Amino acid sequence: MSHQPPIKIFSGTKSRYIAEKIVKEYGVELGNTTFIEFSDGEFTTSFEETVRGAYVFIIQSTFPPSDNLMELLFMIDAAKRASAYKVVAVMPYFGFARQDRKDKPRVAIGAKLVANLLTAAGVDRIMTMDLHADQIQGFFDVPVDHLYASSIFVPYIKNLNLDNLVIAAPDMGGTKRANAYSKFLGTPMVICHKSRKKANVIDEMTVIGEVEGKNVVILDDMIDTAGTVAKAADMMMDKGALSVRVIVTHGVLSGPAYERINDSKITEVVVTDSLPIKPISDKIKVVSVADLFADVINKVYNCQSISSNFIV
To answer: What is the pLDDT of residue 172?
Structure first.
């Protein structure tokens, strides 16, 4: 193609709140789509403007219900059938990512199935942020731009100007992320060790490392029911920590999450707007990733390197 194809950015219905911020940062209008729901709950979606020969970016996180995933699949299919030049799924939150392997017999690997569905729909590229497991990138046979919220969180942590800062991993699985931050910031690291007998229920928890007299920042990719971080924060405060903050990318915040955060000794919970957040707790602060996604969309569209967007 001798000329640059036009760029068009569209949004699924439930991610419109962040899509509007992204296109504002980018400096284009959000594309026109319609979503029609039938009385039995079935739905259809369509583009109300031409996408022929266009570089199409579709912004949609796949959080519950699974209708959000289905809508994204329908939009990819519609764009391909309307002769779009390239179709990129921009998924600030990639759902089903906790199902990245068989952790017991006879279970689905949901993340791989979602990858297969997106590929079958005809996606040319995936753009997402802070996957629950890095290896999910390998589930795709198309390029995956895996962004990290560290480019927003590191300046935030620095601006707190905390003395005796210590970075904490909420569980053994989060040690790689916490270690990267602690090395970059030049601070010590502690690890929370927990044992579970079933999902979302913690039996025992201990902390490996020194937290007495420290300002603790717990880092994670997502906060769901907040059971782990609430318990960890209370335990660290009991062990003499000065303060405990929680900085997570995806604020799932389901079930008793808000209540647990309010009742805990957590100073604040910082989340991104990758998911829609209800502002019903003074302890929860939302930072936007819209400018990060706008910048990476621009670089991908113009075939530029995105490595400068990675801090940690």
So the answer is: 84
Give the Cα separation of 259 and 77 in Å (integer).
Answer: 41
Return the structure tokens found at 44. 């259809």
d(CA 63, CA 126): 16
pLDDT of the residue at 279: 74
pTM above 0.85, yes or no: yes
**Alpha carbon distance 167, 220 (integer Å):** 11
Neighbouring C-alpha atoms within 13 Å toward the C-beta of 20: 6
Backbone angles phi, psi at 99, to 5 degrees: -95, 65
- CA dist 93 and 250 (Å) reads 7
Question: Is residue 194 annotated as part of the catalytic site, yes or no?
Answer: yes
The answer to whether 300 and 88 have CB atoms below 8 angstroms apart is yes
How does pLDDT run across 192-247, given as a tens digit for each residue? 987 766 666 656 788 889 999 999 999 999 999 999 899 999 999 999 999 999 99
CA distance 261 to 97: 24
* Of 24, 194, 265, 299, catalytic: 194
**Cis check: omega of the bond before 65, within 30 degrees of 0:** yes
Give the percent of the chain with pLDDT over 70: 96
CA–CA distance, 119 with 57 (Å, rounded to integer): 15
Phi then psi dihedrals of residue 292, to 5 deg: -65, -50
DSSP 117-172: HHHHHT-SEEEEES-SSGGGGGG-SS-EEEE-THHHHHHHHHHH--TTEEEEESSG
**Residue segments in the chain with a per-residue pLDDT below the cut of 50:** 1
Question: Distance between CA atoms of 189 and 76, rounded to whole angstroms?
Answer: 42
| 3-state class (DSSP) for residue 78 | helix
